[in-house]
Amino acid sequence: MGAKVRSHRVSDGEVAARLARRGLRLTRQRKAVLDAVRAAGGHPAADEIYRRARRVLPQISMGTVYRTLGVLREAGVVQELHLKEAQGRYEERGHHHHHAVCTECGRIEDIAAGAFEGLTTRAEAATDYQIEDHRLEFYGICPACRAERRKA
After folding, report:
1. Which residues contact 137 (CB under 8 A, 6 or more apart)?
2. Extended strands (E) in the chain
3. Whole-prediction pTM
4. How far apart are CA 117 and CA 145, in angstroms?
5. Residue 91 and residue 77 in contact, taking contact as beta carbons nearer than 8 Å
6. What is the pLDDT along the chain (152 residues), one digit of tens a residue?
7. I want to staple 89 with a disulfide (CB 3.0 to 4.6 A). Which of 40, 81, 99, 144 is the partner?
8. Among 114, 64, 106, 112, which residue's Cα sits nearest to residue 89?
C-alpha cells in the first residue's frame, strides 16, 4: 500500500516526563491503560482498552479508563481518532502518520507521513498560518472488502 509507519512506541520514561510536565505521575492506572492501548495493536476503542486494562487491574472502572485516556491525550501520549464512527479510537502518539479507513469494515491502516512530504509547507504558504499539527485521513474500501465484493 505504500510507505508503512515505524513503531509508534514512546518509552515509559518519556511518558513519565510528559506527565511530569503537567504535574502528574505515571500511576498504575495510567500505565495499565497505556499498556492496553499498546497491546491492542492498532486503533482500539475505549471498551477494548477497558477490557485489556481489567486483566491487569480488575478493579479499574470504565470511567477511570475514559479519564485516563483524557489525561494521556492532554499529555500528548495518545491521540483520539474521530473517524466516521460514533466511538473514538485511540493510539499511542509517536511518529507522525496518517490513516486510511475502510468505509465498509472500519479497518484503519497507518500511512507514513513521509508519503506527503512538503504538505505542511504548502499549507502554510496557502494560508499564511504557522501550522503546528495536522491529521490526514483517507476513506475508501480496503483490499479485503474489495475482494469480498468481487466474490458476490
Report:
1. 83, 98, 99, 100, 101
2. 78-81, 89-92, 97-102, 108-112, 137-140
3. 0.74
4. 29
5. no
6. 444 444 557 889 999 999 999 999 999 999 999 999 999 888 899 999 999 999 999 999 999 999 999 999 999 899 888 777 657 888 887 777 888 889 888 888 888 877 788 888 999 999 999 988 888 889 999 999 999 989 87
7. 81
8. 106
- Distance CA(36)–CA(39), nearest Å, equals 5
Residue 103, Cβ neighbours under 10 Å: how many? 13
Beta-sheet pairing, 89-92 with 78-81 = antiparallel
**Could you give the 3-state DSSP secondary structure of residue 66?**
helix
